[in-house]
Amino acid sequence: MATIGTLGAQQRKTMLLERLNQDGAIRLDNIAGELSVSAMTVRRDLDHMEAEGLLRRVRGGAVSIAGPRPFDERRAVRARAKQIIAAKAAALIPQSGAIGLDASTTAGTIASTLGARDGLTVATNSFENFICMRPFPGVTGVLTGGESEPNTESLVGLLACQGASSMLYSRFFSSASAIDASLGSSEVSLAESQVKQAFASTARETILCLDSSKLDDRSIALSFNLRDVSLLITELDPRDARLDGYREIVELL
User: Fold this and answer.
1) Which residue, of 85, 123, 180, 195, has the fewest CB within 10 Å?
2) Is 2's pLDDT higher than 50?
3) Torsions phi, psi for 241 (to 5 deg)
4) Strand boundaries in the chain, DSSP class E
5) Do 200 and 206 form a contact (C-beta atoms < 8 A)?
6) Which CATH architecture has domain 71-243?
């Protein structure tokens, strides 16, 4: 039986994919140490996997390919980071009034921790996130309606946009597929971006909630200019150097 230091290429590929699915990103030096192989070996593995369309190479490692993914698959990725983000967001959720949550699993984690409220209405374009709110007294969940997006399982299209913009929110909590300090946030499709923009159009504040694997990257459809975002929440300490490019543009939490 092979020890970890003598793993074959296919075994390493399987382990690399498992880590990528779990964390959303791979750091070259860290994973080389875990696999007890050289950084050159891992770099070669990652290059081959990029050629197969399994990941995208970045400086120092690799990241998941941005693209539509089912809700249950996305929920398992970076779960601990989402829990930290949800804990930070909890203090910003009012007891009453209305807030918006997008169809992301990060927003779903926030929804699952709402607890009892004094008459809070929460609109979302995700049936899964809507279900998360049902156990909590004093919380009224509202679905935007719209067309079911088969890959992400969110509600999109004209009806979803109309539903999202028909209420007045104190805050809209949104995730993103990627974020870039100069370009802003972006999504895997124009349809996803349009619904988020509809929510934001009637919200006093838009709050971006995303884990650090999304930083310094871009997806397909532009969503928000960071100058229009009130707050950026990640699982990182706001003083973390990875946030240096953002701290002069948007408030960090």
Assistant:
1) 180
2) no
3) -60, -25
4) 25-27, 56-58, 61-63, 97-101, 120-124, 139-143, 147-148, 155-156, 169-174, 178-180, 184-187, 203-209, 221-222, 231-233
5) yes
6) 3-Layer(aba) Sandwich (3.40)
Looking at residue 165, its amino acid is S
pLDDT confidence of residue 4: 40
pLDDT in tens, 22-67: 777 788 888 888 888 888 888 888 888 777 667 778 878 887 765 5
Asked if residues 84 and 238 have their Cβ atoms less than 8 Å apart, the reply is no
Quick count: other Cβ atoms within 10 Å of Cβ 154? 27
- At residue 110's C-alpha, the angle toward residues 108 and 112, to 5°, is 70
CA dist., res. 100 & res. 174, Å (int): 8
Give which of 219, 222, 245, 218 is closest to 232, Cα–Cα: 245
The predicted pLDDT at position 1 comes to 33
CB 113 within 8 A of CB 90: yes
Stronger pLDDT, 15 or 114, i.e. the higher one: 114
Average of pLDDT values for 97-125?
94
C-beta neighbour count of 11 within 10 angstroms: 13
Q: Is the pLDDT of residue 182 over 80?
A: yes
Average pLDDT, rounded, for the chain: 87
Quick one: residue 86, left, alpha or beta (phi over 0 = left, psi -120 to 50 = alpha)? Answer: alpha
Instruction: Output the pTM of the full model.
Output: 0.73
For CA atoms 146, 140, 126, 224, the dihedral sign is positive
Backbone CA torsion sign across 248, 203, 222, 102: positive
Per this entry, what is the length of the chain? 253
What angle, rounded to 10 degrees, do the helices at 9-23 and 39-51 form?
80
CATH-assigned architecture of domain 4-63 = Orthogonal Bundle (1.10)
